[in-house]
Amino acid sequence: MNKGVYVALLSIGLAQGLKIPIHYVKEKEWRPELFFQTGGMPSSHSAGVSSLTTYIALQRGFPTIDFALSLVYGLIVMYDAQGIRRQTGELTLKVNDLGELMEKVHHDETVKFEQKTPKRLKEMLGHQPEEVIGGALLGIFTGVIGHLVTKKNRKLSNIKIKF
């Protein structure tokens, strides 16, 4: 596997790991299972694609096709993380509520009927923008560190040691 893949996977792992302490600070609830779940702060999707794009930019340069492909792909991934994935989560919540209601009706429990005006589902769904930005910043940081750690130090390679 190439070093860019390692940097991206490391960034994804860091983002997933950071979700646990960030959630604890916000909610005062320790939930290690968040490491294996999607959503939340920071976005591991954004972290992964932005670390790879940063790594490619620093290793190969901005005017390369590698950088262009990674940048466009990364922007699409981050856009979808805010849109389609979030909408799926919202629909899941609605379906779960409907399932609980049907369970009560099935067991002949008294169900209080309330006429509610249906809410329109949010059109801009997915990760919250700050979660995507947080993931992107983490990814850029990881990409820069990955580049610095993996680049060949040309000054050291030119040193000749005489015995």
TrEMBL record:
Entry-linked Pfam families: DUF212
Transmembrane segment boundaries: 132-150
Keywords carried by this UniProt record: Membrane, Transmembrane, Transmembrane helix
Entry protein name: Membrane protein
Matches recorded under InterPro entries: DUF212
Lineage: Bacteria, Bacillati, Bacillota, Bacilli, Bacillales
